[in-house]
Amino acid sequence: MEVAERAGNSVEVLLTRYVKCLDGRRGVANRRIEDLLREYE
Questions:
Q1: What share of the chain is helix, strand, coil (3-state, %, to 5)?
Q2: Whole-angstrom Cα distance, residue 27 to residue 41?
Q3: Other Cβ atoms within 10 Å of 2 Cβ, number
Q4: Three-class secondary structure of residue 41 per DSSP
Q5: By three-state DSSP, how is residue 10 classified?
Q6: Dihedral sign (CA 9, 11, 16, 20)
Q7: Which end of the chain has fewer beta carbons closer than 10 Å to its terminal beta carbon, N or C?
Q8: Mean pLDDT calculated for residue range 4-17
Q9: CA 15, CA 21: separation in Å to the nearest integer?
Q10: What torsion do the CA atoms of 24, 9, 17, 20 make, to the nearest 10 degrees?
């Protein structure tokens, strides 16, 4: 909801318009999150 609000769109619009940008990127996102968290250990 935060991202949608900042983008000036509803969650539904974000999911329908931008879902193709996110498809298959979960692994990449998880690795980036894990790398950032390691910096704070």
A1: 80, 0, 20
A2: 21
A3: 6
A4: coil
A5: coil
A6: positive
A7: C
A8: 90
A9: 10
A10: -10
38 token code pair? 């390691």
Helix (H, G, I), strand (E, B) or coil at 24: coil
What is the biggest distance separating any 2 CA atoms in the chain, rounded to whole angstroms? 37
Query: Is 7 in contact with 14 (CB distance < 8 Å)?
Result: yes
Q: What is the pLDDT of residues 12-40, one digit of tens each?
A: 998 888 878 777 888 898 999 999 999 98
Per the structure block, which two tokens stand in for 28? 């990449």
Structure tokens at 34: 């894990």
